[in-house]
Design goal:
alpha/beta; Rossmann fold; seven-stranded mixed sheet; 10 helices; 39% helix; binds S-adenosylmethionine
Length: 285
């Protein structure tokens, strides 16, 4: 099965599970509060996937949503699900890092749960800013590397991708007489990489792009969500006061597992940001 199809089907299953999970659905709803779109506005969803978590909600409110995604399996699913719900939504196969639109055509732009798959967030931000009308809002979320659990997850991810770790796994399988082809098979061109960021990295990018921004924290504070425990370890879930602190407190918000950046495009043109430190390759395989 092609990598695109495998990943697409995996995400369709996961997104359906997420929608049933109260916390993720509430996170998506909460994120949408920061997408500044009114009925009749034209809005771009970058990394629309199946459209269910965010785009459909906006369309139901009368917003015209157009989506881009790199995965044709997900775009097909999005069209099918939109048809089933008789929702009108446009989408196209395109890379967020190279958007196929003219400058300043969208009233708002957002990207939900997709930025941490982008090798070049710098290019993506430049593109999302370019297609946004002056005064419009760009909203996106990042995985926060300052959050202890996310940091551990990232270390684990890097370890799993290291050649040494692969060599150890191959050696172990050979020792046990088990096949190794699956471990050595090419990963496919669209495999989802994982690129978390720290708050200052994103802040410095947005400042270069002359995007005024506010940051909101979300999810787990401490103790950490543990494998198997899932969101049961999310203290914010039990305390609205804590949840609001993690969202808005100037210090605590930087410890949210996810950070949501709400940016407004000013009329002043950006400085040349083509060679910022976040340009590609930070966490390649
Ligand atoms: C975790 S899914 C989230 C999808 C959707 N926003 C949702 O919440 O259901 C991440 C999405 O980003 C898409 N994606 C990853 N890299 C992309 C890129 N460079 N350009 C466009 N889409 C991309 C993936 O195909 C996938 O649909």
């Amino acid at each position: 099965m092609a990598a695109n199809t495998r990943e697409g089907l995996a995400w369709i299953t996961r997104s359906q599970a997420y929608l049933l999970e109260r916390d993720y659905a509430s996170y998506a709803r909460w994120f949408l509060e920061y997408v500044d779109a009114s009925p009749g506005d034209c809005v771009l969803d970058c990394g629309i996937g199946t459209g269910e978590t965010t785009a459909f909600q906006l369309v139901e409110k009368g917003v015209n949503v157009f989506g881009v995604d790199l995965n044709p399996v997900l775009l097909n699913a999005c069209n099918r699900k939109a048809n089933d719900k008789t929702l009108s939504i446009g989408n196209t196969l395109a890379d967020i890092q190279k958007l196929p639109f003219r400058d300043e055509v969208f009233d708002a732009v957002y990207s939900f749960a997709s930025s941490w798959y982008l090798a070049d967030l710098n290019a993506a931000l430049a593109e999302m800013r370019r297609v946004l009308k002056p005064g419009g809002t760009l909203t996106f979320d990042v995985i926060n590397l300052w959050h202890p659990f996310q940091f551990m997850t990232y270390l684990h991810y890097r370890m799993c991708k290291s050649r040494l770790y692969l060599a150890l796994r191959v050696a172990n399988r050979i020792r046990e007489g088990r096949p190794v082809d699956e471990l050595l098979a090419p990963r496919g061109s669209s495999s989802w990489e994982f690129y978390p960021h720290t708050p200052p990295q994103i802040a410095s990018l947005l400042e270069r792009f002359r995007l005024d921004f506010d940051v909101k924290g979300f999810f787990v504070l401490l103790p950490l969500a543990l494998p198997g425990l899932g969101q049961r370890g999310n203290l914010c879930k039990y305390s609205p006061l804590l949840a609001s602190q993690v969202r808005d407190n100037p210090v605590l918000k930087h410890l949210g597992a996810k950070l949501v950046f709400v940016c407004r495009k000013t009329a002043i043109p950006e400085r040349d940001a083509s060679s910022t430190p976040l340009s590609s390759g930070r966490a390649t395989a």
